[in-house]
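Entry 0007
Protein: Porin
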Amino acid sequence: MKKVLLATTALLMTAGAAAAEVTFNGNARFGLQYNSDPTVVPPGAAFDSNMPVGTREATLEKRLRFQVNASTTTDGGVTLGAFLRHQSDEMGGNRGFSGARLYAAYNGLTVAVGNIEGSIESMPGLYWTAGMSLTGLSWSGLVTNTVAKGYFGWDAYSSTGNGPGGREGIEVKYTMGDFTVHASHSSNSLSGLAGKVERSAIYGAYKFSGWTVALGYSDSTLNTEDKLILLVGGNIGDYGVGFQVADNDGTTKIALNGSATFGATTVMAYVADEDTAGVDTAYGLGVSYNLGGGAKLVGGVESTPWNTTRADFGVSFSF
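Output (C-alpha coordinates):
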Protein backbone atom coordinates (compact mmCIF):
# COMPACT_ATOMS: atom_id res chain seq x y z
CA MET A 1 0.00 0.00 0.00
CA LYS A 2 2.82 2.39 0.86
CA LYS A 3 4.36 2.18 -2.65
CA VAL A 4 0.99 2.83 -4.31
CA LEU A 5 0.33 5.90 -2.15
CA LEU A 6 3.78 7.34 -2.80
CA ALA A 7 3.42 6.83 -6.53
CA THR A 8 0.03 8.58 -6.57
CA THR A 9 1.51 11.52 -4.68
CA ALA A 10 4.24 11.93 -7.28
CA LEU A 11 1.67 12.00 -10.12
CA LEU A 12 -0.30 14.83 -8.53
CA MET A 13 2.71 17.08 -7.77
CA THR A 14 3.15 18.19 -11.42
CA ALA A 15 2.03 21.75 -12.20
CA GLY A 16 2.79 25.43 -11.63
CA ALA A 17 0.92 27.61 -9.13
CA ALA A 18 -1.75 30.10 -10.25
CA ALA A 19 -4.07 31.27 -7.43
CA ALA A 20 -3.70 31.13 -3.62
CA GLU A 21 -6.10 31.32 -0.67
CA VAL A 22 -5.58 31.36 3.11
CA THR A 23 -8.49 30.98 5.53
CA PHE A 24 -8.75 30.90 9.32
CA ASN A 25 -11.43 29.27 11.46
CA GLY A 26 -11.76 27.62 14.81
CA ASN A 27 -13.93 26.33 17.61
CA ALA A 28 -14.09 26.46 21.37
CA ARG A 29 -15.95 25.04 24.35
CA PHE A 30 -16.19 25.67 28.07
CA GLY A 31 -18.17 24.29 30.96
CA LEU A 32 -18.04 21.71 33.74
CA GLN A 33 -17.46 17.97 33.76
CA TYR A 34 -17.99 15.25 36.34
CA ASN A 35 -16.35 11.84 36.83
CA SER A 36 -17.52 9.61 39.70
CA ASP A 37 -14.06 8.00 39.84
CA PRO A 38 -11.36 10.21 38.24
CA THR A 39 -8.66 7.61 38.96
CA VAL A 40 -10.12 5.37 36.24
CA VAL A 41 -9.27 6.20 32.61
CA PRO A 42 -10.05 4.34 29.39
CA PRO A 43 -7.82 1.23 29.19
CA GLY A 44 -5.10 1.29 26.58
CA ALA A 45 -5.31 5.07 26.13
CA ALA A 46 -2.12 7.05 26.67
CA PHE A 47 -4.14 9.63 28.60
CA ASP A 48 -7.70 10.69 29.21
CA SER A 49 -7.92 13.77 26.99
CA ASN A 50 -11.12 15.00 28.61
CA MET A 51 -10.28 15.06 32.29
CA PRO A 52 -7.17 15.12 34.53
CA VAL A 53 -6.44 11.79 36.24
CA GLY A 54 -6.79 11.42 40.01
CA THR A 55 -8.25 14.88 40.62
CA ARG A 56 -11.57 15.96 42.06
CA GLU A 57 -14.80 14.56 40.69
CA ALA A 58 -15.93 17.92 39.23
CA THR A 59 -13.55 20.07 37.17
CA LEU A 60 -13.56 22.92 34.68
CA GLU A 61 -13.54 22.08 30.98
CA LYS A 62 -12.18 24.47 28.36
CA ARG A 63 -10.61 24.15 24.93
CA LEU A 64 -9.77 26.56 22.11
CA ARG A 65 -8.66 25.67 18.59
CA PHE A 66 -7.45 27.92 15.78
CA GLN A 67 -7.12 26.33 12.35
CA VAL A 68 -5.30 27.51 9.26
CA ASN A 69 -6.14 26.32 5.74
CA ALA A 70 -3.90 27.45 2.88
CA SER A 71 -4.20 26.39 -0.75
CA THR A 72 -3.27 27.28 -4.29
CA THR A 73 -4.60 26.00 -7.61
CA THR A 74 -2.29 25.29 -10.52
CA ASP A 75 -2.95 26.10 -14.16
CA GLY A 76 -3.73 22.42 -14.62
CA GLY A 77 -6.49 22.48 -11.97
CA VAL A 78 -4.59 20.70 -9.19
CA THR A 79 -5.20 22.13 -5.70
CA LEU A 80 -2.15 22.10 -3.42
CA GLY A 81 -2.81 22.85 0.21
CA ALA A 82 -1.84 22.70 3.86
CA PHE A 83 -3.71 22.50 7.17
CA LEU A 84 -2.50 22.99 10.73
CA ARG A 85 -4.06 23.61 14.14
CA HIS A 86 -3.21 25.53 17.30
CA GLN A 87 -4.81 24.23 20.51
CA SER A 88 -5.07 25.44 24.09
CA ASP A 89 -6.82 23.45 26.84
CA GLU A 90 -6.83 22.75 30.58
CA MET A 91 -4.74 19.58 30.16
CA GLY A 92 -1.67 21.13 28.57
CA GLY A 93 -2.18 24.87 28.49
CA ASN A 94 -0.97 26.47 25.26
CA ARG A 95 0.08 23.49 23.13
CA GLY A 96 1.30 25.46 20.12
CA PHE A 97 0.81 24.42 16.50
CA SER A 98 0.40 20.80 15.47
CA GLY A 99 2.28 19.19 12.62
CA ALA A 100 0.95 20.10 9.18
CA ARG A 101 -1.15 18.03 6.80
CA LEU A 102 -0.08 18.74 3.20
CA TYR A 103 -2.23 17.63 0.31
CA ALA A 104 -2.85 17.62 -3.43
CA ALA A 105 -6.38 17.30 -4.84
CA TYR A 106 -7.78 16.90 -8.33
CA ASN A 107 -11.17 15.82 -9.65
CA GLY A 108 -12.31 13.92 -6.54
CA LEU A 109 -8.88 12.49 -5.70
CA THR A 110 -6.92 13.76 -2.68
CA VAL A 111 -3.45 12.65 -1.58
CA ALA A 112 -2.15 13.90 1.79
CA VAL A 113 1.05 13.46 3.77
CA GLY A 114 2.30 14.34 7.25
CA ASN A 115 -0.24 14.72 10.05
CA ILE A 116 -2.91 12.66 8.26
CA GLU A 117 -6.60 12.36 9.10
CA GLY A 118 -6.52 8.53 9.02
CA SER A 119 -9.01 6.20 7.33
CA ILE A 120 -10.70 4.73 10.42
CA GLU A 121 -10.91 8.15 12.10
CA SER A 122 -12.64 9.52 8.98
CA MET A 123 -15.29 6.81 8.64
CA PRO A 124 -18.73 8.47 8.34
CA GLY A 125 -20.79 7.77 11.46
CA LEU A 126 -17.94 6.57 13.68
CA TYR A 127 -18.14 9.66 15.91
CA TRP A 128 -21.91 9.77 16.07
CA THR A 129 -21.80 10.13 19.88
CA ALA A 130 -19.58 13.24 19.67
CA GLY A 131 -22.69 15.41 19.45
CA MET A 132 -24.34 14.10 22.61
CA SER A 133 -21.99 15.80 25.08
CA LEU A 134 -19.60 18.72 25.43
CA THR A 135 -16.40 16.64 25.61
CA GLY A 136 -17.24 13.17 24.29
CA LEU A 137 -17.07 11.87 27.90
CA SER A 138 -15.25 8.49 27.83
CA TRP A 139 -15.87 7.81 24.09
CA SER A 140 -17.22 4.38 25.03
CA GLY A 141 -19.94 4.68 22.40
CA LEU A 142 -17.35 4.05 19.67
CA VAL A 143 -17.40 0.39 18.56
CA THR A 144 -13.65 0.68 17.90
CA ASN A 145 -12.95 1.31 21.61
CA THR A 146 -12.96 -1.77 23.87
CA VAL A 147 -11.88 -2.46 27.43
CA ALA A 148 -10.27 -5.72 26.29
CA LYS A 149 -8.13 -4.30 23.45
CA GLY A 150 -7.79 -0.60 24.29
CA TYR A 151 -9.06 2.79 23.16
CA PHE A 152 -8.06 4.83 20.08
CA GLY A 153 -5.80 2.25 18.45
CA TRP A 154 -5.86 3.83 14.98
CA ASP A 155 -4.36 6.79 13.11
CA ALA A 156 -5.91 10.23 13.47
CA TYR A 157 -4.94 13.86 13.05
CA SER A 158 -2.93 14.95 16.10
CA SER A 159 -3.84 18.36 17.54
CA THR A 160 -0.73 18.41 19.71
CA GLY A 161 2.01 16.61 17.77
CA ASN A 162 3.57 15.85 14.39
CA GLY A 163 1.18 13.02 13.60
CA PRO A 164 -0.50 9.85 14.92
CA GLY A 165 1.71 8.32 17.59
CA GLY A 166 4.45 10.80 16.70
CA ARG A 167 4.63 9.18 13.27
CA GLU A 168 3.81 10.80 9.97
CA GLY A 169 1.68 9.13 7.35
CA ILE A 170 0.29 9.20 3.84
CA GLU A 171 -3.31 8.79 2.69
CA VAL A 172 -5.42 8.71 -0.47
CA LYS A 173 -9.12 9.59 -0.64
CA TYR A 174 -11.32 9.33 -3.74
CA THR A 175 -14.96 10.37 -4.05
CA MET A 176 -17.12 9.63 -7.07
CA GLY A 177 -20.76 10.60 -6.67
CA ASP A 178 -22.15 8.86 -3.59
CA PHE A 179 -19.18 6.50 -3.19
CA THR A 180 -16.00 7.26 -1.19
CA VAL A 181 -12.90 5.17 -0.58
CA HIS A 182 -10.12 6.26 1.79
CA ALA A 183 -6.80 4.45 2.40
CA SER A 184 -4.06 5.49 4.85
CA HIS A 185 -0.67 4.30 6.07
CA SER A 186 1.66 5.46 8.86
CA SER A 187 5.08 4.15 9.77
CA ASN A 188 8.01 4.98 12.03
CA SER A 189 10.24 4.79 8.98
CA LEU A 190 8.36 7.66 7.28
CA SER A 191 9.33 9.91 10.21
CA GLY A 192 12.83 8.55 10.79
CA LEU A 193 11.83 7.15 14.18
CA ALA A 194 13.36 4.07 15.77
CA GLY A 195 11.42 0.81 15.82
CA LYS A 196 8.97 -0.58 13.30
CA VAL A 197 5.42 0.48 14.06
CA GLU A 198 3.09 0.55 11.06
CA ARG A 199 -0.65 0.98 10.55
CA SER A 200 -2.55 0.52 7.29
CA ALA A 201 -6.29 1.09 6.95
CA ILE A 202 -9.01 1.49 4.34
CA TYR A 203 -12.74 2.14 4.25
CA GLY A 204 -15.41 2.38 1.60
CA ALA A 205 -18.70 4.24 2.09
CA TYR A 206 -21.87 4.60 0.02
CA LYS A 207 -24.71 7.10 0.52
CA PHE A 208 -28.26 6.48 -0.67
CA SER A 209 -31.66 8.01 0.18
CA GLY A 210 -30.40 9.66 3.38
CA TRP A 211 -28.55 6.55 4.57
CA THR A 212 -24.83 5.75 4.72
CA VAL A 213 -23.15 2.35 4.84
CA ALA A 214 -19.41 2.19 5.58
CA LEU A 215 -17.07 -0.81 5.83
CA GLY A 216 -13.54 -0.37 7.18
CA TYR A 217 -10.47 -2.47 7.91
CA SER A 218 -7.29 -1.67 9.85
CA ASP A 219 -4.07 -3.67 10.16
CA SER A 220 -1.28 -2.83 12.61
CA THR A 221 2.07 -4.22 13.72
CA LEU A 222 0.92 -3.46 17.28
CA ASN A 223 -0.98 -6.25 19.01
CA THR A 224 -4.74 -5.71 19.59
CA GLU A 225 -5.16 -2.99 16.93
CA ASP A 226 -6.52 -4.98 13.93
CA LYS A 227 -10.14 -4.00 13.22
CA LEU A 228 -13.04 -4.81 10.90
CA ILE A 229 -15.88 -2.26 11.16
CA LEU A 230 -19.41 -1.92 9.77
CA LEU A 231 -21.35 1.33 10.26
CA VAL A 232 -24.93 1.93 9.09
CA GLY A 233 -26.86 5.12 9.80
CA GLY A 234 -29.48 7.45 8.44
CA ASN A 235 -32.43 9.74 9.09
CA ILE A 236 -36.17 9.20 9.05
CA GLY A 237 -37.58 12.70 9.14
CA ASP A 238 -36.43 14.34 12.38
CA TYR A 239 -35.19 11.03 13.79
CA GLY A 240 -31.74 9.51 13.36
CA VAL A 241 -30.83 5.86 13.83
CA GLY A 242 -27.56 3.97 13.64
CA PHE A 243 -26.14 0.48 13.99
CA GLN A 244 -22.44 -0.23 14.43
CA VAL A 245 -20.44 -3.43 14.90
CA ALA A 246 -16.70 -4.09 14.97
CA ASP A 247 -14.32 -7.00 15.40
CA ASN A 248 -11.46 -5.53 17.41
CA ASP A 249 -8.76 -8.19 17.07
CA GLY A 250 -11.18 -10.89 18.29
CA THR A 251 -13.30 -8.73 20.60
CA THR A 252 -16.73 -7.91 19.18
CA LYS A 253 -18.52 -4.70 20.11
CA ILE A 254 -22.01 -3.57 19.03
CA ALA A 255 -23.57 -0.12 19.40
CA LEU A 256 -27.05 1.27 18.73
CA ASN A 257 -27.61 5.03 18.33
CA GLY A 258 -30.68 7.22 18.17
CA SER A 259 -31.56 10.90 17.98
CA ALA A 260 -34.63 13.12 17.76
CA THR A 261 -34.82 16.81 16.83
CA PHE A 262 -37.53 19.16 18.07
CA GLY A 263 -36.96 22.64 16.69
CA ALA A 264 -33.65 23.90 18.12
CA THR A 265 -33.34 20.92 20.52
CA THR A 266 -31.76 17.58 19.70
CA VAL A 267 -31.83 14.58 22.05
CA MET A 268 -29.32 11.76 21.47
CA ALA A 269 -28.72 8.37 23.10
CA TYR A 270 -26.56 5.30 22.66
CA VAL A 271 -26.02 1.83 24.10
CA ALA A 272 -22.85 -0.20 23.45
CA ASP A 273 -21.66 -3.60 24.59
CA GLU A 274 -18.56 -5.75 24.03
CA ASP A 275 -18.23 -9.52 24.51
CA THR A 276 -15.73 -9.29 27.37
CA ALA A 277 -16.45 -10.93 30.73
CA GLY A 278 -16.89 -8.49 33.61
CA VAL A 279 -17.38 -5.44 31.38
CA ASP A 280 -20.61 -3.48 31.83
CA THR A 281 -22.84 -2.30 29.00
CA ALA A 282 -22.19 1.40 28.32
CA TYR A 283 -25.01 3.83 27.65
CA GLY A 284 -25.44 7.57 27.46
CA LEU A 285 -27.95 10.37 26.95
CA GLY A 286 -27.31 13.90 25.74
CA VAL A 287 -29.13 17.10 24.78
CA SER A 288 -28.03 20.05 22.66
CA TYR A 289 -29.81 23.36 22.08
CA ASN A 290 -28.91 25.45 19.03
CA LEU A 291 -28.34 29.07 20.07
CA GLY A 292 -27.62 30.21 16.52
CA GLY A 293 -24.40 31.70 15.14
CA GLY A 294 -22.60 28.35 15.44
CA ALA A 295 -23.17 28.15 19.21
CA LYS A 296 -24.86 25.39 21.22
CA LEU A 297 -25.69 24.53 24.81
CA VAL A 298 -24.61 20.90 25.22
CA GLY A 299 -24.81 18.40 28.07
CA GLY A 300 -24.59 14.65 28.50
CA VAL A 301 -24.42 11.84 31.04
CA GLU A 302 -22.95 8.38 30.60
CA SER A 303 -22.51 5.07 32.41
CA THR A 304 -19.11 3.65 31.40
CA PRO A 305 -18.07 0.02 30.82
CA TRP A 306 -16.08 0.08 34.08
CA ASN A 307 -19.18 1.06 36.10
CA THR A 308 -18.46 4.77 36.62
CA THR A 309 -20.58 7.80 35.77
CA ARG A 310 -19.44 10.74 33.66
CA ALA A 311 -21.29 13.93 32.80
CA ASP A 312 -20.65 17.38 31.34
CA PHE A 313 -22.46 20.60 30.47
CA GLY A 314 -21.43 23.82 28.77
CA VAL A 315 -21.27 25.91 25.61
CA SER A 316 -19.61 25.04 22.31
CA PHE A 317 -19.19 27.42 19.39
CA SER A 318 -17.37 27.75 16.09
CA PHE A 319 -16.07 30.79 14.26
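Curator remark: The two ends are 38 Å apart (CA to CA). The longest helix spans residues 2-12.
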